[in-house]
Amino acid sequence: MSTTFADFTLSAPLMDALREQKIERPTPVQEEAIPLIQSGRNALVESPTGTGKTLAYLLPLIDRLDTESKDIQLLVLAPTHELVMQITKVAEGLLAKKNMSAAAIIGGVDVKRQLERLKKRPSLVAATPGRLVELLESRKVKVHEVKAVVVDEADRLLDSGFLRSVQEVMRRVMRDTQRLFFSATLPDAVIELASEMANDPALIRASGPENAIGVVHMYLVSEPRKKVDTLRRLLRLANVRAAIVFVNQIDKVEEIVAKLEYHHLPCRFLHRDTSKEERARALQQFREGVYPVLITTDVAARGLDIPEVECVVHFDPAPDSDTYVHRSGRTGRMGRAGLVFSISTPQELFILRKFSKQTGLAIMEKVMSHGQLLDPEQAREVSNERRPVHKKRRFETK
């Protein structure tokens, strides 16, 4: 007999919220993590992208919040503005059922506006670590009543760029505060660091949904100077409702957008140098289908849940296999079908072979030929079949 959310004895308001969103059965990570979190145990949770990790921690944690308290009771740390805002939005939908609220704390925006939101006494705060530490050090935020801290995208937050800030947050909460680390990938080094911040954590490695249709990984070989043209042809051929294209260099993002728009392929761009307002607007328009293509750096590689994304393209190779997994995870959310393409130069092929070996993913070569996406052998056969036959002329002598 399969598990239902009713088996977790969640409160009526949260069950109502799930019914309104037509969420009926828990995913594997939710099935494993929710009872463990309800028990108060510290935990390290690994589960593929798009499998419902956000609800896996929000449901049990929000369920036990004290509705009478005016203090911050739950902290969620995330690496990007976009992910913080997304988590806040999901949390608000659940908290509203209990007449409670959430607030987002991110860098790069007016601190005074954020402090005004904190005056409204949110029960949950989602934050980027750097800005949160700033407010902690200036004593604008108090965390002595926090019951749980969630480190989302833990493999990113425990690398050199964020680690010290995360450690500082953990140092400031109470010793018995529940500590939870969630990620699509939990390398041994991350597990070791997290274990230093959480006493005796349980380790969960959950699979994707059993009925998952799956994501197909493919690559196309292109010379460097023809990459943009290869991308244009691929996007036309795939003809998907929503595609995200990952690029490594910021200056290349706007160049690609300009070239695609020249060929009447509408798209938007997203990178760390764009303003918070521009990033929010680009994401909103992409979600609404105003623009079917989003060209971005790795700022959009983690956590963003846009169910309509049918295709991910690695225009440039990911810096490592974990980032490849996170980028690719923007499609195929919650077991849906998805397409992942890498546009690779001959010199970059060794990187894809390495990723395939490290992740266990089959990454197949494809060729665009005669309006189709074919295996190289199939493309040769089609070309041979369509090659015109030149008959020898017969010259008659008189």
UniProtKB/TrEMBL annotation:
GO terms for biological process: response to cold. Residues 377-387 have a biased composition (Basic and acidic residues). Residues 388-398 have a biased composition (Basic residues). The keyword ATP-binding applies. Residues 230-374 form the Helicase C-terminal domain. Residues 34-204 form the Helicase ATP-binding domain. GO terms for cellular component: cytosol; ribosome. A motif (Q motif) lies at residues 3-31. InterPro entries: DEAD/DEAH_box_helicase_dom, DEAD/DEAH_RhlB, DEAD_box_RNA_helicases, Helicase_ATP-bd, Helicase_C-like, P-loop_NTPase, RNA-helicase_DEAD-box_CS, RNA_helicase_DEAD_Q_motif. Belongs to the DEAD box helicase family. This is ATP-dependent RNA helicase. It comes from Brevibacillus borstelensis AK1.
